[in-house]
Amino acid sequence: MTLRISRPAALSSLALAMAAVHAHAEPADTIVVTATRTPQALANVISDTISISSEQIAESGAGSIVDLLQRQRGIEIARNGGAGTSSSVYIRGANSNQNIVLVDGVRIGSSTTGAANWSAIPLTAIDHIEIVYGPLSSLYGADAIGGVIQIFTKKGKGAPAVTGFVGYGSDKTREGDATLSGATGGEHSFSYAISAGKEKSDGFSATRPGASGYNADRDGYDKENVSGQFSLQLAHGYEAGALFLHSKLESQYDNGASAYDVRSKALFETAAVYGKAQFVANVDTLLQYAESKDNGENWSKASADGYSRINTKQQDITLQNDIRIGEDVLQVLYDHRKEEVDTNGSRDLNRDRTTNSWAASYNARRGANLLNASIRRDNSVYGSKNTGSLGYGYDFTKQLRATASYGSSFRAPTYNELYFAGYGNPANKPEEGKNAEVGIRWDDGVNALSANYYHNRLSNLLVNTTPCPYSGYASSCVYNVNKATLEGVTIAGATKLAGVNLNASIDLQDPKDDSTGKRLARRSRKHGNLGADYSFGPLKLGAELDVSGDRYDDAANKNRLGGYGLVNLFATYAFTKDWSALVRWNNIADKQYDLARFYATPGSKVFAGIRYGYK
């Protein structure tokens, strides 16, 4: 059955969810950073936001961060094979390059594709993750159309501690990681965390019969990483710190039935140094220099023309001032970003560009009323863009809140879309988005229910077209032509019944190309998740259901990808305070499903591991 979401239907779904919210309790006290660029209780955040805790990550048994994100509301994925292959993450129907990804506040992603290399991000290095849904260009600049995902690596606190994990599973998947962390006390406290991890798997064939490059061999991967965070309290209100993450991924993929080892190598790095100061009693100042690298190499055949290299680098200088005015916060921000590309392919890509940005935001509470407003101006080679947002929340009770917001956003043309010979055009303009949203939340600490309706209208979309209308050649090129609408309702809830923790979410959406009336490629009209777990003393048993409606693999909606439902089981057992075990069985029915046409997905897989010193 095909589900079509019109605006009245979406609003009706929201109204039903609102009618169902009638309960009793207390808002969550989780602290998040991403929604406002400053630490804030989740109970005071207007934007639709979730936080994936370290405990949830530990119990997930996920083979990659993409597997973990697939189980979150509002998110869909596509992948060209196993955990080491190319992946895309869609937030509320927005493309992978229409979302921003941060690691400890450092922006990552390729300047040629505009998207993060998800396969190279090591799950073993992650402490927790925050996802903010909706446009945040007025806070973070270009590309924050669908939302922002921020990844936080492990941070030191408390007495010195060592944690570690080793695991083994199907396809000879091996995983191990260790962390040393802690903090000293006193006036000049020093905190530290150093982590290292390695993942390796023989994998499975990335492609299925029918693919142009089909090869029945196994396509495995080998990933290793090291990360660290260090901070020194110089005096009250003054702090200096540094952080880094280095990850190397070597993976195999298919390019025909050849004996040659077709493979790729990715190097993903972030690093930052920062200083925090309180020169004035009510003003917190942050100055940070950050770098991120997304380097890739491919060997598609034995001859010299089978080798390609694309290295991209981003450098950011950020000056942020948070000015406290009573209980309100005025934030003033300056950001300087430089992007560089070096490739052995299209020489037109070997260049750099800079973006200078000014932004301001204001967050206020007056009794039951919450308000935030922000504006930003970004100046770059593609011109100047102004964005803004306005959000309002009202607390009917301590447990029940209604919100409404409006925000504008844009996506900058990538290097490929501007400069790639015979494809890009330096005259291409940024894509633009305008999003209106209303929502309601109930949270009493035990029972939670939320519903959000959004309508995100996109214009100047950059699309591939053949023949090229401005070059005179028959080859394809990219230019601003399309419009699209991302519209939908996300409903999520959690409760505890007879000792069983339950959580569920459903997304009803209509991600549509307004120029053709077709659905956007690889996005469904409905998808959802259901989870349940129960504890018997030190033993916890859990089950998950991931479901999705059908999708199309192409913009013309000719190649249909069927819907699917996956059931996963997991169990954890705490032997002692420090020792625990995990067993996870994913896709227990060995369901064959498609995330991309002719590309394989994991069948029934089992993974088990032992953890020490988890805290």
Automatic annotation (TrEMBL):
<dbReference type="GO" id="GO:0015889">
    <property type="term" value="P:cobalamin transport"/>
</dbReference>
<dbReference type="GO" id="GO:0009279">
    <property type="term" value="C:cell outer membrane"/>
</dbReference>
<keyword id="KW-0798">TonB box</keyword>
<keyword id="KW-0472">Membrane</keyword>
<keyword id="KW-0812">Transmembrane</keyword>
<dbReference type="GO" id="GO:0006811">
    <property type="term" value="P:monoatomic ion transport"/>
</dbReference>
<dbReference type="InterPro" id="IPR039426">
    <property type="entry name" value="TonB-dep_rcpt-like"/>
</dbReference>
<keyword id="KW-0732">Signal</keyword>
<dbReference type="InterPro" id="IPR036942">
    <property type="entry name" value="Beta-barrel_TonB_sf"/>
</dbReference>
<keyword id="KW-0406">Ion transport</keyword>
<feature type="domain" description="TonB-dependent receptor-like beta-barrel">
    <location>
        <begin position="184"/>
        <end position="588"/>
    </location>
</feature>
<dbReference type="InterPro" id="IPR000531">
    <property type="entry name" value="Beta-barrel_TonB"/>
</dbReference>
<keyword id="KW-0813">Transport</keyword>
<feature type="signal peptide">
    <location>
        <begin position="1"/>
        <end position="25"/>
    </location>
</feature>
<dbReference type="Pfam" id="PF07715">
    <property type="entry name" value="Plug"/>
</dbReference>
<dbReference type="InterPro" id="IPR037066">
    <property type="entry name" value="Plug_dom_sf"/>
</dbReference>
<keyword id="KW-0675">Receptor</keyword>
<keyword id="KW-1134">Transmembrane beta strand</keyword>
<feature type="domain" description="TonB-dependent receptor plug">
    <location>
        <begin position="47"/>
        <end position="148"/>
    </location>
</feature>
<dbReference type="InterPro" id="IPR010916">
    <property type="entry name" value="TonB_box_CS"/>
</dbReference>
<dbReference type="Pfam" id="PF00593">
    <property type="entry name" value="TonB_dep_Rec_b-barrel"/>
</dbReference>
<keyword id="KW-0998">Cell outer membrane</keyword>
<feature type="short sequence motif" description="TonB box">
    <location>
        <begin position="30"/>
        <end position="36"/>
    </location>
</feature>
<protein>
    <submittedName>
        <fullName>TonB-dependent receptor</fullName>
    </submittedName>
</protein>
<dbReference type="InterPro" id="IPR012910">
    <property type="entry name" value="Plug_dom"/>
</dbReference>
<comment type="similarity">
    <text>Belongs to the TonB-dependent receptor family.</text>
</comment>
